[in-house]
Amino acid sequence: MARASRPARGRPSRFRLNSDGQRHPLENVLSVVTLTCGLVAFVSAFFPSAHAIGAWLGTVGFLGGLYSQYVSATTPERALNIVGIVASFVGVALGIYHGGYYP
Question: Residue 73 belongs to what H/E stretch?
Fold first, then answer.
């Protein structure tokens, strides 16, 4: 138990999606795409003229995020998925409010 209280030596810790030591290229790409779609949909939904972009990317990010959450292997992947899913939902909701899927 004495070792648990000492800080780890070596490289500083970084945010890693492969926290289990195995490679998960598909799951990592899905998590990053979900987060990217969600953030773009979230930002573009605040501009009424970009409602179609927010609605479409929000829908793609939301549905892709649900699948990504289903196949995710590590906790950091799941954290990115949840942030992307929530941002996508807000983006699609505001995009539909401002005018829907078509310009």
Answer: none
Tally Cβ neighbours within 10 Å of residue 85. Answer: 22
Write out the two tokens for 69: 């959450």
- Least confidently predicted of 3-12, 48-57, 58-67, 68-77: 3-12
CA dihedral 62, 101, 33, 65 (to 10 degrees): 10
Amino acid in the structure at residue 77: E
pTM above 0.70, yes or no: yes
Q: Where are the domains of the chain?
A: 30-103
Token readout for 94 is 């505001």
